[in-house]
Amino acid sequence: MVVTGGAGFLGQHLVRKLTSFNPRQIIIPRSSQSDLRDYSQCMQVFKGKDIVIHLAANVGGIGYNQAYPADLFDDNILIGINCLRAAKAVGIKKFVIIGTVCSYPKHVPVPFKEKDLWQGYPEETNAPYGIAKLMSLVQARAYRQQYGFNAIYLLQVNLYGPGDNFDSNSSHVIPAMIKKFVDAKNQQASSVAIWGTGRATREFLYVEDAVEGILLAAEKYNKKEPVNLGSGKEILIRDLANKIKLLTHYQGQIIWDKSKPDGQPKRKLDVSKAKKEFGFTAKTPFDAGLKKTLDWYLNQ
Fold first, then answer.
1. Sequence ranges of the domains in the chain
2. Is-contact 229 185, C-beta < 8 A?
3. Cβ distance 200 to 194 under 8 Å?
């Protein structure tokens, strides 16, 4: 088995779970040794293996997407294309692709249903990334039709949990907020500035729940249609900020920087297909997962 991106946030949790099953071998290609944008190197990584769980991506928050849209498009489309080409060429039996909620159109009925994936253009701040990732679904379906290649595609919401990326330059909203509030408390700052208006909504999936969903799909799902993987619950960014402020015991003010973008106005997935097709339902209460994430960060 190969887990691309196995050294990343989600990958480390997934590999830890897989290791508990005592598999024959888990290959984790590292970017310093294998460039998955290169077809020949993908061939070398996948040769002789049977299953690929494909997590590898160049990914980050709104600021990162605004700063590096070309890199995000180029890297993710090349990784997707060449990994699938190589997997088919060497005879991989099943290829599990982790896509992104960022591929959904900016304006689509809530909750997002898989059938609405093609109903418009993604939110502009993350469109290059979202579209590049979506092309793997097109490629996977084409390979299934022409070659009978078994590739499945999971549309995943933002993750959170212990081990998340807290780098200010590339982190997503939960780790970014946690770091801001912890830093502000430690520095006794009078206020914390947060991007946007706070009126956007987001859905989050605890990382260990995501692992469970991916493994259930890898075991039980073998169809061409994409499947949403999320908690099915949304929260206002304003309410999220207040929760983290309370958890960190920060006493200052929250300043909303309305000159910065909100990103997509609303995000919430219809998660009924995942339950129907392979029995997945997220189990971790949001407040409990948030506290575990904060506790992990404070202990580092």
1. 2-161+203-233+266-283
2. no
3. no
What CATH fold (topology level) applies to the domain 2-161+203-233+266-283?
A: Rossmann fold (3.40.50)
Q: What is the pTM of this model?
A: 0.95
The per-residue pLDDT for 245 is 97
Active site residues: 129
Task: Tell me how far CA of residue 95 lies from CA of 147, 157, 249, in angstroms.
Answer: 13, 20, 44
* Main-chain phi, psi angles of 133, to 5 degrees: -65, -35
Residue 200's alpha-carbon distances to 158, 161, 244, 263, in angstroms, are: 14, 21, 16, 8
Instruction: Identify the pLDDT of residue 169.
Output: 84
Instruction: Write the pLDDT tens digit of every residue in 79-109.
Output: 999 999 999 999 999 999 999 999 999 999 9
CA distance 230 to 273: 11
| pLDDT value of residue 199 | 96
In whole angstroms, what is the distance from residue 64 CA to residue 76 CA?
Answer: 14
User: Phi and psi of 267, rounded to 5°?
Assistant: -140, 120
pLDDT (tens digit per residue) in 211-239: 999 999 999 999 999 999 999 999 999 99
